[in-house]
């Protein structure tokens, strides 16, 4: 009896150790946080220093605001700290009514038009970013867990092909910088792996908070390609692939990045 | 009213040095940047920050366009009496905002 | 016959000179020469009074990832008592459109002369932090900062 228990415990111990080791060995990915200097890391870690928290505070107020003549987010969703846990971590997700993938910002606007019966908020507006930051913040510390809806398989594959496609006047693909040359320097800055676990992000370059779409547009300008419009299907399919690429990494929203 | 985040303890022992951290949402437009139409955007910054402890100014700062957007200021104040810590930001275009924090000193 | 290579030995005089040189390099730090722009801005703050290097520590990264938001901390050694405290501390830059960065008034009620904020730096340049003490003395710390630009901007 004692031997049995001991051997079960030993086996479990071995299994745990080996799975931890396997995880540690398998996941060599580095978040943008890891490539930043200590001072900027400290800016992200401390909620009273992280400028992104100003938008989270805005979002907390907007969550309870009654828009138009209808009702607030809180009316249906209650306390976001409970109901929104893990929600942002699975976006972009499949919307069965629109029959297309949607990211978190688009989902918030769909709630507004379908349920709250108000106009959608413009992309990158202070209010939309505030709500996105507030909702994404409720997933902080949880692993990115992209939705496994089967309708997302093909859009995600199209996103992956975009990622590997050379584009722009500089004829570069995302993969060339962020897969092949991550860790090397581009004009004095370290090339990050390009993970999406911190959005919306306070980018020091913007001195403001912005969405993943805004950051992707910066990349596209960087290779002198024409960025597609906000909320175009190409953008969301790329976001879909990027979320899968970063799956399992801890959500840091709102992150701080150079 | 701009969004602010303030860290000031609500209670402290007499003589304790309290760490105060303040963050306020403000673009701090320098007055040197060109807008998308090529014209220089007018300056719009917070010019002065002051911290009062029970009415007396304990720390103040004159800010210039070289201070980053969403200005962050951290400093310390010795807890000596219960009362109010008040933080005031003033700037261009009549910007003026005060936030208060109560402090109980044992 | 084996040939043994012998390293040339330094004469005692040469050794002493080398040692003295190393000693000088370590212990003697001459006052940093400020650029004219910075010197002028500093004069505006001090009214022409003499300044000494020391007592102020200007903590800033020597290599900055993004010049738009650079965290800094100014620490001044002082008991911050009513008799001996830091009255003011200011930062000036060399190559931004204007020299002033921030100017703070302190009081003994602060307990510690430590101020943190975030500043903008247009380009690689020299910066100086200056503190005025209650006894009227001025102390400075000069730093050189390299500023890199973010890649892939709007």
Brief sketch in words of this structure:
The complex is a heterotrimer of chains A (about 260), B (about 110) and C (about 150). Chain A has about 260 residues and is mainly alpha-helical.
Task: List its traits.
heterotrimer, B: 106 residues, mainly beta, Immunoglobulin-like, five-stranded mixed beta sheet, three-stranded antiparallel beta sheet, 54% strand, elongated, C: 154 residues, alpha+beta, six-stranded mixed beta sheet, 2 helices, 9 strands, 18% helix, 36% strand, globular, disordered N terminus
Major sheet size, sense and barrel closure of chain C = 6 strands, mixed
Kindly give the count of domains of chain A: 1
Which architecture of chain A would the CATH scheme give at its second level? Answer: Orthogonal Bundle
The amount of helix of chain A comes to: 40-55%
Number of helices of chain A: 11
Report the sheet-strand fraction of chain A. Answer: 5-15%
Number of helices in the DSSP assignment of chain C:
2
N- and C-termini, Cα separation of chain A: 59 Å
CATH first level of chain A: which class? Mainly Alpha
* Largest pleated sheet of chain A: 3 strands, mixed
List the helices and strands of chain A in order. HHHHHEEHHHHEEEEHHE
Count of the separate structural domains of chain C? 1
CATH architectural type of chain C: Sandwich
Oligomer state of the chains in this structure: heterotrimer
Low-confidence runs of at least 5 consecutive residues of chain A: none
Describe this structure in words.
The complex is a heterotrimer of chains A (258), B (106) and C (154). Chain A has 258 residues and is mostly helical. Chain A has a single domain, classed as Cytochrome c-like domain (Cytochrome Bc1 Complex, Chain D, domain 2, Orthogonal Bundle). Chain A has 11 helices and 7 strands. Chain A has helices at residues 2-26, 38-45, 52-63, 73-77, 80-83, 104-116, 126-137, 153-164, 174-178, 212-222, 233-245; strands at residues 93-95, 100-102, 185-186, 189-190, 201-203, 208-210, 255-257. Chain A starts with a helix and ends with a strand. The mean pLDDT of chain A is 91. Chain B has no helices and 8 strands. Chain B starts with a strand and ends with a strand. With 154 residues, chain C is an alpha+beta fold. Chain C has one domain (36-147): Sandwich (Immunoglobulin-like), CATH 2.60.40.2470. Chain C has helices at residues 12-27, 36-46, and strands spanning 51-53, 56-60, 63-64, 70-76, 86-93, 100-105, 114-119, 125-133, 138-147. The interface between A and C is medium-sized, with 22 and 14 residues. Strand 5 (56-63) of chain B pairs antiparallel with strand 6 (100-105) of chain C.
